[in-house]
Each structure stands twice: as C-alpha cells, then as structure tokens.
Design a protein that fits this description.
Layout lengths: L1 H19 L12 E12 L5 E14 L2 E14 L2 E16 L4 E12 L4 E17 L3 E16 L2 E17 L4 E12 L2 E16 L4 E12 L9 E12 L1
Antiparallel strand pairs: 1-2, 1-12, 2-3, 3-4, 4-5, 5-6, 6-7, 7-8, 8-9, 9-10, 10-11, 11-12
C-alpha cells in the first residue's frame, strides 16, 4: 500500500501545481457559492409503521478555471420500530479546467451505512475529465482515474486500489425544471469482479425563486457486501429544497 500512497501524493501535488500555476482565466471570476438544502419526511401508520427521514446539503462554486462541489446527505428510517435505513455520505470534488472542456480533478468520498454494516468507506480519487456537452442549459461530462479505498465493512478493515469511471449529465428543461443523472463504476484493480456502482437520477421543479420540489432515485450496488446482506440498495426520495 506504500506505493499507492506515494502515487496519491504525486497526483495531489500535480493537481495543486495545476490549480495554482499561472494561467489566464477563461471567464470572469465568480466568487459566490450556490447552496441548496433539501429535507424529506415519510410517515405511515397502520398495518405497518414506517418512518423515513432524508436530508442533504449541496454547495457549488465556479471561479476562473476552477470548479468546486461539496455535499453531504443522510437517511434514517424505521419499520415497526426496527431501523431499516441509516447512512451518511459526504463528498468534495475540485475540478481545474485545463482547456474549455478538459479538466483535472480530485474527489474525496466518505460513507457510513449502519444497515449495510459499512463502518466507513473513504475513497480518494484523482483523475481527468472531459465535457462532451457544455452550454448554458446542458452539460455532459465523463471522468476517469484511479481511486484509493480505505474501508471497514462487516468488521473487516481493508484498503485497495480501484479504477474510477464516472459520468454526469444535467439539463435545464425549462425555466422551472432541471433534470440530472449520474453513474459511477468502481471496480477493484486486482479483482474486477469486486466493484461498487453508484447511480442517481432526479428532477428539481421550482415552486418559488427559493423553494423547489426535488424527486430522485439513488441506487448503490456492492458486488461483495457484508455477509448476510443484499447487494443492492435503492432509495426513492421526494424532498423540499431551499436555495440560499
């Protein structure tokens, strides 16, 4: 693992040099953050008692040749008094535009999922990306690079290297509605049959200039889950979002 850490240090150093090296900005600087908080709640009483809480906080910033996305989301649920969902996920992604469409990136993800018996899973992933579509209302980008995973699943601590392949699509359907979709594939380099897939698709519809209704589906597939647990976890979430 020592050689992996050395490679990671070199990747971070290279990205830092790119981020802070001298080059002319391609657009006027924008120093403002765009932040959105969303909260969803479902309660059912009767033959089955269900309760589900969801929440997330997303923030993004673009300035010069730089892009930053930060986020944290969590879910807690009970069925007949027994916990049926309980996870928290955070991420940070920094993109440095090298041309109008090509960029270098560094992404960090951290996950805890009590129901799936994931005490922690941290992924550090430098890489390269490209905007296949990039205009005012729509973008489609792809990303590729190595990932360094540190985890404790089912009481077993492990670390390994993965290949990260990802894409994200967003489009503004009209003045009130936005659609997005993302897919991430993380196979282990030493054993491609061991992998994690993260997928999401959703739509955000404005109610006012600040409030919107957000509905989305999240799917996480782990080919080697903790013993006794299912490989696939799917969530359908409807939430009210507030833009700061």
């Amino acid at each position: 693992m020592k050689q992996y850490r050395n490679l990671l240090c070199l990747a971070v150093a290279a990205l830092s040099v790119s981020a802070f090296g001298q080059s002319a900005p391609t657009a006027p600087p924008n120093t403002g953050w765009i932040t959105t908080a969303a909260f969803g709640f479902t309660l059912a009483k009767g033959n089955t008692d269900n309760m589900l809480l969801t929440g997330n906080l997303l923030s993004s910033k673009k300035w010069g040749q730089n892009e930053m996305d930060l986020g944290i989301d969590g879910t807690y649920g009970e069925t007949d008094g027994v916990r049926s969902a309980g996870n928290i996920h955070g991420f940070d992604q920094y993109n440095r535009l090298l041309t109008e469409r090509l960029f270098a990136l560094l992404r960090v993800d951290a996950v805890n999922d009590a129901v799936a018996n994931v005490d922690y899973r941290v992924t550090i992933a430098p890489g390269m990306g490209y905007y296949f579509i990039k205009n005012t209302n729509t973008f489609l980008r792809g990303e590729v690079g190595p990932g360094f995973v540190f985890e404790k699943v089912g009481g077993v601590t492990d670390d390994y290297v993965v290949l990260r392949l990802a894409e994200r699509f967003e489009t503004k359907l009209n003045e009130r509605a936005k659609l997005w979709q993302s897919l991430e594939f993380l196979p282990a380099v030493e054993e491609f049959s061991s992998y994690v897939i993260n997928a999401e698709i959703g739509i955000d519809t404005s109610i006012t200039t600040k409030l919107s209704l957000r509905t989305f589906v999240q799917d996480t597939y782990d080919s080697t889950p903790a013993p006794g647990l299912k490989r696939n976890d799917v969530k359908l979430v409807a939430a009210i979002a507030y833009k700061f």
